[in-house]
Amino acid sequence: MRKKKNLIPRMDKCRHLLAEAPAEHKGSWRDLLRPGCQLRLELGCGKGRFTVASAEAEPGVLFIAVEKVADAMIIAMERAKEAGLENVRFIHGDVSLLPEIFAPGEVDLIYINFCDPWPSSRHIRRRLTSEGFLQSYRKVLRPGGSLRFKTDNRPLFEFSLSQLPKNGFALADVSYHLHEKGPAEIMTDYEAKFYEQGLPICRCSAVMEPMPPDPGRTELSSPGL
Ligand SMILES: C[S@@+](CC[C@H](N)C(=O)[O-])C[C@H]1O[C@@H](n2cnc3c(N)ncnc32)[C@H](O)[C@@H]1O
């Protein structure tokens, strides 16, 4: 992404939407909107089309968008400011920091939309649906909380479908062609482009359950062994 001109002054104009020291809100994020409200995270929000449309559609829900590239996030922040949203905050940082920023069980729902596929097997651990990341989401999601994942990348989707159950996420809703009969739900910037090109979008939901038993560990702890 090209470097944005005047990033700092532009950021200053939207500063009320930026969580500058996000760890200070750990355990009390809902105070930013209303006690007891739903708290949802969007990981890698990019330019924020999904963030803004979702927050407009559900003003009673607090949306926290995480993005590591400031040049993309500024566009999302400006869109949120333009829309006059009060139920969105942005975190400029890496998804790997979530457990430092959110208390255990604080989050109701996590969206992962069109994350980078990292196709090489050397980079599996960088995929946002790989084991290390899924285990970190478990630390911040409430029991029964959920994760919603969308991608145009079929191999990444298959990989994710294999990883989710192993990490205690029960698959609830799997589609290989979400918008087959026309736009089915709010789209991200990437998704809108892919949709216009006629490409199928994969989407799944998954509900966090207790971790499945580890077969290796069960064998070792069996009586008599
Ligand atoms: C392919 S873009 C998709 C953007 C947006 N979700 C959409 O669908 O239009 C992936 C975005 O995730 C961000 N991203 C990737 N890995 C990240 C990480 N570990 N922490 C925070 N943001 C990340 C990238 O900077 C990029 O903006």
Automatic annotation (TrEMBL):
Annotated protein name in UniProt: tRNA (guanine-N(7)-)-methyltransferase
UniProt: substrate binding residues: D152, T188, D189, Y190, E191
Stored PANTHER family: 3-DEOXY-D-MANNO-OCTULOSONIC-ACID TRANSFERASE/TRNA GUANINE-N 7 - -METHYLTRANSFERASE, PENTACOTRIPEPTIDE-REPEAT REGION OF PRORP DOMAIN-CONTAINING PROTEIN
Coiled coil is among the record's keywords: no
Functional description taken from the UniProt entry: Catalyzes the formation of N(7)-methylguanine at position 46 (m7G46) in tRNA.
Binding site for S-adenosyl-L-methionine: E42, E67, D94, D116
UniProt GO cellular component terms: tRNA methyltransferase complex
Record NCBIfam families: PRK00121.2-2, tRNA (guanosine(46)-N7)-methyltransferase TrmB
